[in-house]
Specification:
- The chain contains 5 helices and 2 strands, in the order αααββαα.
- About 65% of the residues lie in helices and about 5% in strands.
- α2 packs parallel to α3.
- The chain has a two-stranded antiparallel ribbon.
- The protein has about 150 residues and is mainly α.
- A hairpin with a 5-residue loop joins β1 and β2.
- The mean pLDDT is about 95.
């Protein structure tokens, strides 16, 4: 549990850093903005499943042009995940969650694996975002875990 909490703290930090880099780049790349919004929405999707709110329909790949709105989404996600994890006990990590994919396919996954999915999914896409920033000759955000751990 302690490791997951620490990794979630890294996620909140890294989400903020990548948004800072996007704002500093002043990018107009709509696909890049769509990608960062996708990360925020995916965090919401997984939390809705963890909280048993059913298969709430989210639009994972919607156009996005408003970085301040995406930042508000990430900030709300961090608050909501902190509230969820604060109430979660070690034994709760093995609880199985029944949910349906965005396509309606039923699945059953442990809380632990869902949280790891959230953590790894964000890291994967932040790498893509940083690569795109480099290609625009913009400064990427150093979001490696070790950078966070050294703070």
């Amino acid at each position: 549990m302690k490791t997951i909490m620490r990794m979630m703290d890294h996620l909140y930090w890294a989400d903020g850093r990548i948004l800072d880099a996007l704002e500093a780049s002043d990018t107009k790349d709509t696909e890049l903005l769509k990608l960062v919004r996708h990360v925020a929405v995916a965090e919401q999707v997984w939390l809705s499943r963890l909280e048993g709110r059913g298969n709430v329909q989210y639009w994972l790949w919607e156009e996005a042009e408003d970085l301040p709105e995406i930042r508000r989404m990430f900030e709300a996600n961090a608050k909501d995940y902190r509230n969820y994890i604060e109430k979660l006990e070690e034994s709760g990590l093995d609880k199985m969650i029944d949910y349906a994919s965005q396509n309606g396919v039923p699945f059953r996954t442990s809380v632990r694996d869902i949280l790891l999915q959230v953590l790894l999914h964000g890291q994967y896409h932040r790498g893509q975002i940083n690569r795109a920033l480099r290609m625009e000759s913009a400064e990427p955000a150093p979001v490696d875990y070790i950078t966070f751990a050294r703070l």
